Amino acid sequence: MNIIVCLKQILDPEIPARDFRVYGEMKEAVRGSANLVTNIFCENALETALQLREKSGGRITALTFGSEEAEDTLRKALAMKADAATLVVNDGHPHPDPLAVAQTLAAAIRKIGAFDLVMLGRESGDWGVAQTGGLLAEELGAPCVSFVDHIEVGGDGPNAGLIVKRQTDNGWEKFTGKPPLVVTITNNEFNVPRIPKTRDIMMSARQPITKWTLEDLGVNAAEIRAGGSYYEVVDLAVPVKEVACEFVSGDTLEQKVERFAERVIEITRGL
Question: In sequence order, what E strands does the chain have?
Answer without folding.
Answer: 2-7, 9-11, 22-23, 28-29, 36-38, 59-66, 84-89, 117-121, 144-154, 161-168, 171-177, 181-185, 210-212
